[in-house]
Specification:
Shape: extended
CATH superfamily of the largest domain: Tetrapyrrole methylase, C-terminal domain
Helix content: 25-40%
Bound molecules: S-adenosyl-L-homocysteine
Number of helices: 14
CATH architecture of the largest domain: 2-Layer Sandwich
CATH class of the largest domain: Alpha Beta
Length: 436
């Protein structure tokens, strides 16, 4: 059945010779997708075949099939017997029209499958579409650039450039359907990459692929070096992190650097913690880049709220407990800009980002708007980091925590009935939670 499926996928015409068909094969026959010759094997069955697969569990029959195929000069495969086969079915990465075959000459199909899985992870899902796309332009590029070395250079630049990035992101640029802009391939571009909460395993595949393409990285302070190390070794790394109180790289300066590097024709990765569009000022950077006409690709990342919720085993929504979840920045919690009455309503989950210094204010405001001191909360420090810590608590526990210097940043505060599910974790520090 497995072989038939692979062969059909490759558009072979398949004839099964067997005394009986199992249910799967019978379905294929009923659907007209395969032929069936009912009966025991006889060498004459092979006449006219292009390939033969001996897939019985009877070694004598398999051997007879091999002999008959050899006599007729037809290539044969004996299933699970590479040594007695003339061809093999390799493990395949199928991003048609791009195909990668991995084989170990029958030594270890399991190893081949593992290597295949690694290649799968490495190749963008839409690389087949990219191959199609390039194929559509092949003749025109050939005509426009008759000189082989120029053409080679063109294609090298093309696959590294913004057009390829866009095709891989699922949008085939329409203007290319009429005319390929050869100079444009040498233009710079920017990737706004969200790299998640810290653990490199929580990177997306696309983040990893684009990190490897970038010539320049502008990264936040909190992005760990293990993630930056996924970039090319010769890529330039610039720390544009804004640490509280320290000498800032202003947002304006970051915006300017992004534009300048891209205008020099480089591929610039703006590497941000979490998701670029959740309290990450990604929107401002996007606007500046669009204004400057620089192609931008945005890669979503796992945001701190979902990472912290996973760490604490707190479902952000849960039937009967919470019907909505709100992400709030606690910066300016005291300034009156937040709708505390709405945030203090029960039956919902509220996640406060950047709340470390504001915990007292948050607790006081929520209490003032009617949440009881017993209302569950969870503090999650450094979600997904080795030093991660989960503190289940109640609203009443919160006051004074920050003042006593008991929080390690970055910290996230989850407020809501679901926080009661939080499981204390991390450095035997749970004991540090002060008594009410
Ligand atoms: N764009 C980011 C958020 C940047 S704002 C994202 O989507 O996650 C920075 C705030 O995010 C921090 O003050 C903290 O509240 C939260 N944060 C970021 N990483 C965190 C982590 N690993 N654990 C807990 N909170 C985190």
């Amino acid at each position: 059945m497995r072989k038939v499926e692979q062969l059909l996928k490759a558009q072979a015409r398949v004839c099964v010779i067997a005394p009986v068909l199992d249910a799967g094969l019978a379905n294929l026959r009923d659907a007209g997708r395969i032929q069936w010759r009912c009966g025991d094997f006889s060498p004459a069955h092979l006449d006219g075949a292009a390939l033969v697969v001996a897939a019985t569990d009877d070694a004598a029959v398999n051997a007879a099939v091999a002999v008959a195929a050899r006599e007729r000069g037809i290539w044969f495969n004996v299933v699970d017997d590479g040594a007695n086969s003339q061809f093999i079915f390799p493990a395949i990465v199928d991003r048609s029209p791009l195909i990668v075959a991995v084989g170990t000459a029958g030594r270890s199909p399991t190893l081949a499958r593992r290597v295949r899985a690694q290649i799968e992870a490495l190749l963008p899902q839409r690389i087949g579409e990219l191959a199609e796309y390039a194929g559509r332009w092949r003749e025109r590029v050939k005509a426009a650039l008759p000189e082989v070395s120029r053409r080679l250079r063109f294609w090298e630049t093309f696959f590294d450039g913004p057009i390829a990035t866009r095709v891989l992101a699922g949008e085939a640029p329409a203007q290319l359907d009429t005319d390929i802009d050869i100079d444009a391939t040498a233009r710079g571009e920017v990737y706004l990459i969200g790299v998640g909460p810290g653990d490199p395993d929580l990177l997306t595949l696309r983040a990893q692929q684009l990190l490897q393409q970038a010539d320049v990285l502008l990264h936040d302070r909190l992005v760990p070096s293990q993630i930056l190390d996924r970039a090319r070794r010769d890529a330039l790394r610039i720390d544009v992190g804004k640490s509280p109180g320290a000498h800032d790289t202003t947002q304006e300066s970051i915006n300017r650097q992004l534009v300048e590097w891209a205008q020099r024709g480089l591929r610039v990765a703006r590497v941000k913690g979490g998701d670029p569009f959740v309290f990450g000022r990604g929107g401002e950077e996007l606007a500046v880049l669009r204004e400057a006409g620089i192609p931008v690709t945005v890669v979503p990342g796992i945001t701190a709220a979902t990472a912290a919720a996973a760490s604490a085993l707190v479902p952000l929504t849960q039937r009967g407990f919470s019907q909505s979840v709100t992400f709030v920045t606690a910066t300016g919690a005291g300034s009156g800009s937040l709708d505390w009455a709405a945030l203090a309503r029960p039956g919902q989950t509220v996640v406060f980002y950047m709340g470390g210094a504001q915990i007292d204010t948050i607790a006081a405001k929520l209490a003032a708007h009617g949440l009881p001191p017993t209302h569950p909360v969870a503090l999650i420090e450094r979600a997904s980091w080795p030093e991660e810590r989960v503190l289940p608590a109640t609203l009443g526990d919160l006051s004074g925590i920050a003042r006593r210097g008991q929080l390690q940043s970055p910290t996230l505060l989850i407020v809501g009935e679901v926080a009661a599910f939080a499981i204390a974790r991390g450095v035997k520090e749970t004991a540090r939670l002060p008594p009410v």
